[in-house]
User: What shape does this take?
Amino acid sequence: MFGFGDIMAAALGLILTWDRDLSEIVLLSLRVTLTAVAVACLIGLPLGAVVGAFRFRGRGTVTVLLNALMGLPPVVVGLFVYLMLSNAGPLGVLGLLYTPTAMIIAQTILVTPIVAALTKQVVEDLHGEYAEQFSSFGLSARARVSALLWDARYSLLTVALAGFGRAVAEVGAVLIVGGNINHVTRVMTTTIALETSKGNLELALALGLLLLGLAVIVNAAVMTLRASAVRAAYA
Amino acid sequence: MVMDIRAESALVAEPLLEARALRFAAGGQTLIHGIDLGIEPGRRTIVMGANGSGKSLLLRLLHGLLPPSSGEVLWRGEAAGRAARRAQAMVFQRPVMLRRSVLANLTFALKVHGLAGRARTERAQEALEMARLTDLANHPARVLSGGEQQRLALARALVCEPELLFLDEPTSSLDPASTQMIEDLVNAAHARGVTIVMVTHDMGQARRMGDEVIFLHAGRVAERGPLDRVLGAPRSEAARAWVQGRLYTGDT
Assistant: This one.
């Protein structure tokens, strides 16, 4: 039986030697999460901006829906995507189940409402300030949305970060649709769960430390960028 | 004297902008009561009246920022739409600064008006020079002083060469030097042929800047006429009380 110190030393050793299995898992995690966040931003930013900037019938319902979907249970999303992509499902023919693409789809579904709902709030506040000036310019709806997104870019970085945080720490959905297959769909969170249950705590702890480090680095980077933007009065 | 006669009587030139039976109600209250008026090209019209008389609201209705409850606004004889708004510009009491550099605030306005890249920058730089903001071109617009922000807002409004410029108390929170600079810019624009419609509480400014006065009271035009006549010998009780610095609570 090894003590905590031994396990920690072994975990740090894995990180410092950049163990092959460890690096493969980390890189796949980043690939899946960053792709999912990028797709979620492509959908969620304009969606949130439109809901935030314009008054239309059903706007209240869309807002309630987005807010509610922010708290989607990952396992439910995993189950839904599984049913869609399984052989018996409508998208089964694509053969995506137990692939990184399936994991990206699941994470995108989880993250998009977060990005959209937070973007809506940011853009709504900014539009309150800009609305009359934009109307005076005679700005089209599309130009209005793109100008709002551009001027809110520093606040929206924080939104993307919230999406990244949700996606990178998620385990339920990717486990269901990815299957946690070694060298194929094994990401940090699913590996931590598996290796802990197997008693292989060194790898689990190494991944846990990297996950924490990643969260700290991304947060620090965005905060620094945002603080400099605030100082320059661009945020 | 020609100007006096024109202002007191029916419009001589075709109005650039015309309000017909313009009415606006909100929260079960009528705030603008069926106003009819025309703005002739090339004139400087001062809109005056007590707080809550509907001056800023009237400007927003004329510029198309708010839809009227009834009545219409015509631009060159036709229903005013987005195209009309693009031929006009408005400067607000509190300038709206985009979260961009001073120069980018100007190039954005020019881009909206369809000006291509290089011409855009050149025109923006000319406008900065005119507003004496060249040294601040790359500064974030939101860190400028109140006077500089208002000059930038005015430069941004003028850079697209509007035919009609609305000004809603543009100098109400500025010191005399900044006020002077704003007035110089507005006068220079007027000299280039821009029609001016300006809200102000400042009678001195009205005298310096106006050809005629529209005096509003409780959402109605209480009086309209040449500036010297309205401020010198007002005919309506509301305008008379205003000029004399008395509180007036009557209906007309």
